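User: quick one
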Amino acid sequence: MRDGQVTEIGAALLGWYDAQARVMPWRTGPAERAAGVRPDPYRVWLSEVMLQQTTVAAVRAYFHRFTQLWPTVADLAAAEDGAVMAEWAGLGYYARARNLLACARAVVRDHGGVFPASREGLLTLPGIGPYTAAAISAIAHDAPEVVLDGNVERVAARLFAVETPLPAAKPELYRLAGLLTPQRRPGDHAQAMMDLGATICTPRSPACGICPVTGFCAARRAGIAADLPRKTPKAAKPTRTGTVWVARRPDGALLVERRPERGLLGGMLGFPGDGWDGSAGAAPLDAGWRPAGEVRHTFTHFHLILQVLVAETAAAPRRGAYLAMPDLHPTDLPTLMRKAHDLALAALADASGGSI
DNA sequence: CACGCGTGGAA
DNA sequence: TTTCCAAGCGT
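Assistant: Done. Structure below.
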């Protein structure tokens, strides 16, 4: 590839980016940028963490809610753990929420409430890795960092027809993404690369016909754009089985327990269970348990079939604690537990002869 | 470096 | 129904 070609690609990309309508609330528009306005690092950070392995569509409502509840990093740092975990419920990868709080508190405690501007400084914070550190520095401060996420990996693999499978190809893709990174408007360049990957240079059936850099794309020329990037095959998911117990007290309170900080659904509320998450457990109390049905759920690395047992009881529990509204909302639960909750309450309603 | 870690939408 | 996948990080 000629030297000048890199410049041409960059220009075509920025031209395309400037013509796009921006609907995401954490972005600045062309007018703001022209006025020299940079986006709020807190909002950039929050959006980037939420967007880790998560779609824009899923993030939008959560971002709005978080910024409404906690407008600044100091507000978030002062929040209670349980409140933040409850707001994150349903978004997945709950270690992100725990690290989010730890990061906010570190920014307040160690950095005077101001996010470090440099990639290196950001990298020291919990939940901020190579991608997020580079992205925040580039987007919030227009630093010429190499921003390499899944989108950029795909765009670079295709532009340069890299046939080495991921993740082995990552160092080479980082080098190529670095070649493309300009000194002028590097932040917009990074966002342009990611947006191109998200909207045009998509994993399946890329829209090469409307791509602003299609003329420079080696994979397109070779007719293999849709086949890149190649990936090493993943292991098949096993299926696990297990049980959860949902006890309801006469006053309507449900028996729940806070899960351990580490591991699956770490730090989230859940129903006492056995045999599905690697830990063994006995029924939380003795009662006339009866089956409510089964819940099916798929995690990153296994399928789960969960038997849900219910009981109406006033007995004191051996594990967990009773919680009632307003301290327990079904939406505070991770999705697996919300499914179990819905099934259990339907079964309890049937048994009590109630009709909707 | 390989693995553990959620969820919902698309094909 | 099943598989793949989305703006990764921590260990």
